[in-house]
Design a protein that fits this description.
Blueprint: E1 5-9, H1 13-25, E2 29-33, H2 36-45, E3 50-54, H3 62-72, E4 77-82, H4 87-96, E5 100-103, H5 108-152, H6 157-172, E6 174-182, E7 188-195, E8 205-206, H7 211-219, E9 223-224, E10 233-240, E11 243-253, H8 260-289, H9 301-318, E12 322-329, H10 332-339, H11 341-356, E13 364-367, E14 372-378, H12 382-398, H13 400-406, E15 413-420, H14 427-443, H15 445-448, H16 459-467, E16 479-482, H17 488-502, E17 508-513, H18 522-526, H19 532-535, E18 541-547, E19 561-565, H20 571-574, E20 576-582, E21 586-591, E22 597-600, H21 603-616
Parallel strand pairs: 1-2, 1-3, 3-4, 4-5, 17-18, 18-19
Antiparallel strand pairs: 6-7, 6-11, 7-8, 9-10, 10-11, 12-14, 12-15, 13-14, 16-22, 17-20, 20-21, 21-22
């Protein structure tokens, strides 16, 4: 095996062959050139360990060759050879970067000794450089490993997201980073982002079964991000035990472009993070088991407060919503007295279990006292909280032990919800508004007139009860029966439309039931104009017109309006109604035969009317 690669440059063939024979015999690989120009071409194309050059040559001389070669490669070893003893030339060659200087005629032994000495320095320098590179790589690997251990030691989910984003950005020199983590349904939900990231351009959820991501996630290797997710960006999957647990985005490298080193570092951090996510979930499951009330299985209040604090931090940092729900069993003492101790304990355990069937894995149901419970609903706005209240109420009413008890005494369950940041930005504010809405439910006509006992789809039955004079309205009620007024229904439609116009992006539902053709509804003209393309997929304000199709010309479509035709439904021939439910207000106006009219701002009652209308006509829920 050759010890070194040597280029011999001499304009005389005799010396070329002499030097080559001596050096080749010692095991070196030798190339020869007859001019400095030819030698520079060889140096440009090949790696050379030693340049052995004559100093006196036609054209570019040895000194010029040495200077040019060393300019191109400052670490190139050079030995100069000349046929005459010239101290000045020797000095100039040394200044140009020569390692040694030989004179002709040469002794083969002396040539070999000089070549071996120079090549030994080359080998030593390369070994040192390789060792230094390996040491630097080792130091980098150790630093990455230590950061990975720090990630593995983090069992708090939110802190884990922040730490992983920080390490990913630091190790890849990325100016922007985002992280999606698998939720309880297996969808990858956006949990955090930092730096130069356009939040609006990032999807809230990524479906791991989507063909655009499925193969890449299974492969586990970094891959390019879709257009629009950032400038120069790539994605790296978080996979543990062949299960996709997350996806990280790195974008806009501060210096240069992302390459193999950055992809490899991101993959290492992603592997640590995937394991940490799995460990954090296991720890949370174990932690929750030890923090439950023995009687009901609900979490204790200290755990709830700790969890709520983390939710406030997350919501403030990433601009998310969440809701607090207060559940109150208003007649606990009466139930205990009527049922007896053990049946009462079973009843409360079953009631809490029924509410628990309505919560998601990320939701927290906690016991405050024997009669009061809190529910924290992460990433849930006020409308989402109303949907939870409906589900929880239905589950409780379906519970066998509750139905058995209500044959003897009613189970009075009052539920109120408040959401961040709409209702407040600290726990006390949310709790105040949630309890205030519990009071609203206690005082609602729904409770006072026992209207909640009607079947889910009994919209018209509830309407008839409210319109009839048989049910007396308390003086303190937020409801009233009115004298016939031909203009009231049209005025109410226009006012509801103006309320939507004040903030078209605020979530709200408006249902208008008409006796006449839908095209004639005053609400359509009063609604704010909008671009249908811009409103596509927008989940905010929605208006539904219900009634006969009619024979008049159809009105121009409006992006907020959905028409629901109910041709042949005779109940619309004698009734009109308006139901408005938003994050800020609730209002219902019912008009029956002979001009009988009822209106209310009773939030629980309006929600009950909306719910029963949706059930009766298979309309989409909130």
């Amino acid at each position: 095996m050759a010890n070194g690669r040597i280029l011999v440059v001499d304009d005389e063939r005799f010396f070329q062959e002499l030097f080559r024979d001596v050096l080749t015999g010692a095991g070196h690989a030798v190339r020869t050139s007859s001019s400095a120009e030819e030698a520079l071409e060889v140096l440009a194309a090949e790696r050379v360990d030693l340049l052995l050059t004559d100093m006196v040559m036609p054209g570019l001389d040895g000194l010029g060759l040495i200077r040019e070669a060393r300019r191109r490669d400052p670490e190139l070893e050079v030995v100069a050879v000349t046929g005459r003893e010239d101290v000045k030339l020797a000095v100039e060659s040394m200044k140009a970067g020569c390692s040694d200087f030989l004179t002709k005629p040469l002794e083969p032994g002396e040539l070999l000794r000089v070549a071996e000495r120079v090549l030994a320095r080359v080998r030593l320098r390369r070994e040192h450089s390789q060792l230094l590179t390996e040491n630097l790589e080792f130091v980098k690997a150790q630093a990455l490993y230590r950061q990975g251990l720090q990630i593995l030691a983090t069992l708090d989910g939110e802190r884990l997201v922040d730490l992983a984003l920080s390490v990913l950005a630091r190790t890849t020199d990325a100016q922007g980073a985002a992280l999606w983590v698998a939720d309880e349904k297996g969808q990858l939900a956006l949990r955090g982002y930092r730096g130069l990231v356009d939040r609006a351009a990032l999807p809230v959820r990524v479906d791991p079964r989507d063909p655009a991501f499925a193969d890449a996630l299974r492969g586990g290797a970094p891959f390019l991000a879709p257009d629009g997710w950032g400038g120069e960006a790539f994605l790296v999957p978080l996979v543990a035990d062949d299960e996709p647990l997350g996806l990280a985005l790195l974008s806009d490298r501060a210096r240069g472009r992302f390459g193999r080193d950055e992809h490899a570092a991101a993959l290492v951090v992603a592997d640590f993070t995937a394991i940490a996510v799995k460990n954090a979930r296991r720890f949370q499951a174990v932690e929750r088991v030890g923090l439950r009330d023995r009687e009901t299985g609900a979490y204790n209040l200290s755990y709830f407060v700790d969890y709520a604090g983390k939710e406030f931090y997350k919501a403030r940092r990433y601009g998310r919503a969440f809701s607090l729900v207060v559940l109150s069993v208003d007649n606990v003492e009466q139930l205990r007295k009527e049922a007896g101790r053990e049946p009462f304990r079973r009843l409360m355990r079953d009631l809490v279990a029924a509410v628990g069937r309505a919560v998601r894995d990320a939701d927290i149901l906690a016991k405050v006292s024997e009669s009061e419970y809190y529910v924290l609903l992460p990433e849930t706005d006020y409308f989402g909280a109303l949907m939870f209240v409906r589900r929880a109420t239905e589950e409780v009413r379906r519970e066998a032990s509750v139905r058995t008890m209500e044959e003897r005494v009613p189970v009075l369950l009052s539920i109120g919800a408040a959401s961040f940041p709409k209702d407040g930005e600290d726990f006390d504010e949310l709790l105040h508004w949630a309890r205030d809405r519990v009071q609203d439910q206690r005082g609602s006509l729904l409770r006072r007139l026992h209207l909640g006992d009607l079947e889910p789809g009994a919209f018209w039955e509830l309407t008839d009860v409210l319109l009839s004079g048989s049910a007396r309205l308390p003086d303190s009620s937020a409801s009233a029966r009115l004298q016939p007024d031909a203009e009231l229904f049209a005025a109410a439609q226009r006012e509801a439309a103006r309320e939507i116009a004040r903030d078209p992006r605020a979530r709200g539902l408006l249902y208008v039931g008409l006796r006449s053709a839908l095209a004639a509804s005053p609400v359509r003209a009063a609604l704010p104009a909008g671009d249908p393309a811009a409103r596509a997929g927008d989940p905010s304000a929605r208006v539904y017109l219900l009634g006969p199709r009619g024979t008049d010309a159809e009105a121009a479509p409006h992006p907020l309006v959905t028409e629901v035709y109910v041709d042949g439904d005779q109940r619309f021939a004698g009734h009109e109604f308006l139901l408005f439910l938003s994050e800020r207000s609730a209002y219902a106006l019912l008009s029956g035969p002979d001009g009988r009219t009822f209106h209310t701002s009773d939030m629980p009652l309006v929600d009950a009317l909306v719910s029963k209308l949706q059930s009766a006509y298979d309309l989409q829920p909130i």
